[in-house]
Fold:
Amino acid sequence: MRVIPIQLPLRNLIRPPLAVFGIILGFLIISSCSSRETPVPTSSPKPKELELIRDQTYHTDGLKEHKLDIYLPTGNNGPFPTILMIHGGSGKKMDLIYWGQILSKTGYAAVSIDHRQWPDYKYPVHLEDAFCALAWIHSSAKTYDFDTENIIVMGHSAGGTLAALLGVIDNPSPFLEDCPHTLPDNDWIQGVIPFTGIFDYQTVIGESPSLDSYAIGLLGGTSQELPQIWREASAVSSVDGSDPPFLLIHGQDDQNIPASQSREFAAILEAAGVEVELLIIPDAGHNQIINSSESSDAVKNFIIGIIRKANQPSTES
Structure:
């Protein structure tokens, strides 16, 4: 496991979007590569614009929750590494506009989704929506020039929980039964970035009793009543070593979900042989980590690492 160090004292944890964008653009730019290789950012700054396509549907059922926004870079040739973004509980897809703008202006495509949420809906419909949106990205790759060999899932809070599940579940078929799109047989994502999340429902209620009623409501009953559902909804239960690389980001002062969830999940991933990086930001709460410069740097480096790994020649004969 790589634990990302933080220099103390911390810089301001919340930065205006333009300031962070300026920092990132100072280091990131898509360089020209061969036709098959995905471009890797270089250090030469070059301003980019973005195209925002709002309210596209990723399901045919007509539900208002099944819409997404697409952030595309302009002035570059694709295919574009693509980041699926999943908002937190009681949120909406526009909550992650900050990241959509930064990523697309850096040369990546970003897709921010709405999905069905508790308390109006219970598990597993939000997970079904996340898998369906991921399948939509694969099905729409030619239309929007998505690079399906470089798809990364990012989520905050409840969205982080979903992102982790997309990364560790080996058989998504049960969650795609009502989806009009399909996923490839394997390698549907290449990286996962949860900004906090519940990765083990059983342990989190012991650490944070306030989450007990939330877990029972979302999952439809207690762990004694529905032990299989509680295991299935916990990402720790599906880690098997075949999972894509993870970057886990958590605020040490998170009062909603304890940082121990990310620490313990990182340890489980590492023990299984999964590449994992852990960033715990001191003095940061549940929402501060989204716009922090520490998170921006870590995400930037993580995505670059995923792209470079995909560009490496295969050693298989």
Remarks:
- The beta strands are 2-3, 50-57, 67-73, 80-86, 109-113, 146-156, 191-195, 246-251, 276-281.
- Residues 2-311 form a domain with the Rossmann fold fold (CATH 3.40.50.1820).
